[in-house]
């Protein structure tokens, strides 16, 4: 059901050419992304750092598995978070409570104790799941019936994401690696506090947009959701944290159970979705879409290595000395957003120029090919590193190529999700895309266990081989997939499904 909130008339432009209310949401999003990417840049390094240096002293295998699971749960959290915003909290309160959870999570991470690590990550997962869909919903409501202005607004949000992702690792990384790990987490918490204050002060300018649930759930549904969330979510999570912290439960066991859940949710979701009677006329096309989702999961499996094992590689195996200054390893995490900012306009122009002449499957082949090639290069760099530190250009080249792959897979995949969706199922198709991204991130983290028995070079070569094999399989199926994706015309489908160029703007 569509929100009945009345959007404010965008008459007075006072913030980046947008109404004043936009500044409130923009600043909140900017600081939320600053805190997220700042923490992301130092998390894996903190996990493997020795206790003497203030870290957790984990093995690289455990750190990568925990990191991958964290990323996959962040992807997945947007589904229940969006449901809570739509049915129970309303987008405005969901954003507020999400910000509170994120702030609490970073504060917990800044406390040097093992239980607070897991509690902090859990709070950030919950908070991010509430904030991201709610912010997008409020911007969409404000510009309801004005698609051009909405696209411009989301373009500015995309800019805030990339600028935050570029600057955050530089600030938190230096503080964490050179002064104290927990100071880095504390800076991330400070950023979110600033965003929350800005949001509370500026909420009056939002009118009634997001003030109520767009599709309110009956009281009995609300009470049932809270009760089941506590019984099946809160209590098991708390017991798991206490068990791991006390040594009663092994971290690997918890991650394995979570991994099974991550793998199972998309399967259950897909089966239930295909049982809906209104889906039946579109089954041929949706089955072809499933193959594209599986391919995208392999890409995100590769992508998830960047802030985890590749970040550790930067610390241990890259010559980071520049004119006598040792560059913090976490600063390499600014490379990807920098490349995104530089290349996104070019890719958006490329999609517009290509138009419909090139179908989605060939584009996915290109994206997977780029992902595979990047890890073949990474394998070569890791092989050279066995003899000593390598040039940072190796790692920067890998990041550049995989960003090019991301600029293909992410926007094209999101655009395809909207294109193939049966009427009334667009949001669910986009949610399904991110569910498979979660599967890829979790799988990538678990695969890091291979490094316990093989060299890093072999591990990266295996990943590169998987990427190239998926690209080859897609290439052999291009004609069939292209035909099936366009198999049936969709009655009453809106003609304004986002193009790949527009999808580039919504990578956040």
UniProtKB/TrEMBL annotation:
<feature type="transmembrane region" description="Helical">
    <location>
        <begin position="284"/>
        <end position="303"/>
    </location>
</feature>
<feature type="transmembrane region" description="Helical">
    <location>
        <begin position="117"/>
        <end position="140"/>
    </location>
</feature>
<dbReference type="InterPro" id="IPR005279">
    <property type="entry name" value="Dipep/tripep_permease"/>
</dbReference>
<feature type="transmembrane region" description="Helical">
    <location>
        <begin position="459"/>
        <end position="478"/>
    </location>
</feature>
<feature type="region of interest" description="Disordered">
    <location>
        <begin position="488"/>
        <end position="508"/>
    </location>
</feature>
<feature type="transmembrane region" description="Helical">
    <location>
        <begin position="152"/>
        <end position="175"/>
    </location>
</feature>
<feature type="transmembrane region" description="Helical">
    <location>
        <begin position="94"/>
        <end position="111"/>
    </location>
</feature>
<feature type="transmembrane region" description="Helical">
    <location>
        <begin position="396"/>
        <end position="418"/>
    </location>
</feature>
<keyword id="KW-0812">Transmembrane</keyword>
<protein>
    <submittedName>
        <fullName>Proton-dependent oligopeptide transporter, POT family</fullName>
    </submittedName>
</protein>
<feature type="domain" description="Major facilitator superfamily (MFS) profile">
    <location>
        <begin position="24"/>
        <end position="483"/>
    </location>
</feature>
<feature type="transmembrane region" description="Helical">
    <location>
        <begin position="331"/>
        <end position="352"/>
    </location>
</feature>
<feature type="transmembrane region" description="Helical">
    <location>
        <begin position="181"/>
        <end position="202"/>
    </location>
</feature>
<feature type="transmembrane region" description="Helical">
    <location>
        <begin position="364"/>
        <end position="384"/>
    </location>
</feature>
<keyword id="KW-1133">Transmembrane helix</keyword>
<dbReference type="GO" id="GO:1904680">
    <property type="term" value="F:peptide transmembrane transporter activity"/>
</dbReference>
<comment type="similarity">
    <text>Belongs to the major facilitator superfamily. Proton-dependent oligopeptide transporter (POT/PTR) (TC 2.A.17) family.</text>
</comment>
<keyword id="KW-0813">Transport</keyword>
<dbReference type="Pfam" id="PF00854">
    <property type="entry name" value="PTR2"/>
</dbReference>
<feature type="transmembrane region" description="Helical">
    <location>
        <begin position="63"/>
        <end position="85"/>
    </location>
</feature>
<feature type="transmembrane region" description="Helical">
    <location>
        <begin position="255"/>
        <end position="272"/>
    </location>
</feature>
<dbReference type="InterPro" id="IPR000109">
    <property type="entry name" value="POT_fam"/>
</dbReference>
<feature type="transmembrane region" description="Helical">
    <location>
        <begin position="34"/>
        <end position="51"/>
    </location>
</feature>
<dbReference type="InterPro" id="IPR036259">
    <property type="entry name" value="MFS_trans_sf"/>
</dbReference>
<dbReference type="GO" id="GO:0005886">
    <property type="term" value="C:plasma membrane"/>
</dbReference>
<keyword id="KW-1003">Cell membrane</keyword>
<feature type="transmembrane region" description="Helical">
    <location>
        <begin position="430"/>
        <end position="453"/>
    </location>
</feature>
<dbReference type="InterPro" id="IPR050171">
    <property type="entry name" value="MFS_Transporters"/>
</dbReference>
<keyword id="KW-0472">Membrane</keyword>
<feature type="transmembrane region" description="Helical">
    <location>
        <begin position="230"/>
        <end position="249"/>
    </location>
</feature>
<dbReference type="InterPro" id="IPR020846">
    <property type="entry name" value="MFS_dom"/>
</dbReference>
<dbReference type="GO" id="GO:0015833">
    <property type="term" value="P:peptide transport"/>
</dbReference>
């Amino acid at each position: 059901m569509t929100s009945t909130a009345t959007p404010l008339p965008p008459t007075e432009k006072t913030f980046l050419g947008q109404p004043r209310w936009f500044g409130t949401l923009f600043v909140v999003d900017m600081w939320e992304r600053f805190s997220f990417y700042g923490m992301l840049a130092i998390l894996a390094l903190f996990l493997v750092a020795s206790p003497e240096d203030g870290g957790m002293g984990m093995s690289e295998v455990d750190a990568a598995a925990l990191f991958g699971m964290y990323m996959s749960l962040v992807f997945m959290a947007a589904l229940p978070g969006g449901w809570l915003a739509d049915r129970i909290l309303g987008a405005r309160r969901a954003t507020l409570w999400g910000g509170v959870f994120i702030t609490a999570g970073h504060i917990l991470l800044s406390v040097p104790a093992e239980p607070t690590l897991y509690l902090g990550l859990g709070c950030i997962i919950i908070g991010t799941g509430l904030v991201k869909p709610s912010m997008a919903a409020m911007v969409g409501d404000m510009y309801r019936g004005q698609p051009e202005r909405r696209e411009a607004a989301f373009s500015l949000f995309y800019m805030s994401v990339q600028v935050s992702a570029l600057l955050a690792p530089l600030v938190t990384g230096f503080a964490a690696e050179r002064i104290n790990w927990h100071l880095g987490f504390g800076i991330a918490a400070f950023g979110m506090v600033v965003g929350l204050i800005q949001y509370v002060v500026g909420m009056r300018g939002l009118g009634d947009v997001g003030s109520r649930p767009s599709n309110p759930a009956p009281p009995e549904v609300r009470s049932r959701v809270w009760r089941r969330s506590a019984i099946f979510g809160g209590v098991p999570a708390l017991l798991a944290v206490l068990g791991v912290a006390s040594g009663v439960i092994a971290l690997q066991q918890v991650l394995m159970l979570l991994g099974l859940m991550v793998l199972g949710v998309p399967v259950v979701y897909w089966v239930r979705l295909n049982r809906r009677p209104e889906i039946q006329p579109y089954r041929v096309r949706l089955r072809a879409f499933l193959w594209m989702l599986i391919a995208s999961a392999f890409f995100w499996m590769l992508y998830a290595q960047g802030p985890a094992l590749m970040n550790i590689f930067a610390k241990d195996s890259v010559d980071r000395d520049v004119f006598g200054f040792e560059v913090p390893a976490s600063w390499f995490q600014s490379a990807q957003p920098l490349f995104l900012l530089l290349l996104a306009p070019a890719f958006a122009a490329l999609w517009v120029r290509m138009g419909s002449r090139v179908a989605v499957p060939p584009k996915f082949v290109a994206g997977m090919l780029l992902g595979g090639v990047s890890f073949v290069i990474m394998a070569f760099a890791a092989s050279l590193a066995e003899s000593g530190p390598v040039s940072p250009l190796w790692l920067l080249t890998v990041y550049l190529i995989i960003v090019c792959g991301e600029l293909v897979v992410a926007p094209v995949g999101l655009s395809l999700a909207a294109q193939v969706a049966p009427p009334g199922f667009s949001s669910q198709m986009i949610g399904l895309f991110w569910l498979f991204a979660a599967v890829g991130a979790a799988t990538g983290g678990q695969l890091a266990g291979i490094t316990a028995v093989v060299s890093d070079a072999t591990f990266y070569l295996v990943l590169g081989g998987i990427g190239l094999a998926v690209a080859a399989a897609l290439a052999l199926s291009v004609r069939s997939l292209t035909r099936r994706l366009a198999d049936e015309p969709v009655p009453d489908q809106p003609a304004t499904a986002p193009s790949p160029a527009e999808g580039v703007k919504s990578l956040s």
